[in-house]
Write a structure and sequence with these properties.
Length: 261
Amino acid sequence: MIPTQPPYPPQPPYPPQPPHGWAPQPRNGLGTAALVLGIVGVLFSLIPIIGIIAWPLVIIGLVLGALGIVRAQAGKADNRGVAISGTVLSAFGLVICVLYTMAFATAFSGGSSATTSGGGSTTASVGSVQRADRTTPAPAPVTSGPPGTTLSTDDGMEVGAGPLRDKTAFVGAVKCTDVTYRNGSPSTESFNIWDWKLQDPDGAIRRVSIGSNNDLSSGELAPGGTVSGQVCFDAKEQQQGTWTVVYEGGLFGSENLTWVN
C-alpha cells in the first residue's frame, strides 16, 4: 500500500489589486498641524508672561507649514491653503513674541540704568560734625504740552508729537500724528511704534492701528541720533472733544508724556 502524501496547506489569497487609475490618498497632516499650532500660538502670544509658551508653538508651526506647502506643490497633499494659513498665523505669532521680548528688554534696561544713575545725598565733614549738602531742588519736568512741543523723558530722550490729522485707511477712519525722537542721553536708547497710544474724548485708550500707514519703525538711537515717522490710531467714532496723544515708552513703559489736541 502506497502511503498518501499529506495535503498541502491552503495558500493565502492574493490581495485584491487596486482599480485602474487608483492613486494613494494625499496626506495633509503637516498643513493641518501647522494651522492648529499657528492658532494656538497666536492666542498664547497675546497673553503677557504666559506668552513664552507660544515661542516653540509658532516656530514648529512655521516649519510644519513650510513643509506642508512644499508637499502640496509636489502633489503629495491637497491642502495648500490650510498650510499657507498655518504658516501665516505662525509667523504672525512669532512677530508678537519678538515685540513682547523687545518691550521686556527695553523696560528691564530702563530700570537698570535708572538704578545705576541714582545716587544719595553727599555729606561734608567738618571736624566731627557732618552736614548734608544743601542743594536747590530741580524744577519738576514738563510732561505735557500742545502739539509740536518737545518733551523729555527721564532717561534723556527728547520726544515730540505734531497735531492730529484725520485720515482714511484700509481699516477705516484713523487719526495720525508725526512723532520725532532725539537721543539726548550718553547711551544708546530704543524707539518703537508701540511707545504711543491715543486717548479719546471719552477717556478710552486706543493703541496703534495695525492696518494703517504707520511709517515709524523700531530700533535704537545712538547718542545725538534722531528719527521721525507717522503713527496712526483707530478713530472710527468721531467724537467731539479733546484727543490726547500719549508717549509711554513701550507696551510696559512708565513714561507719561502727553500732547493735548
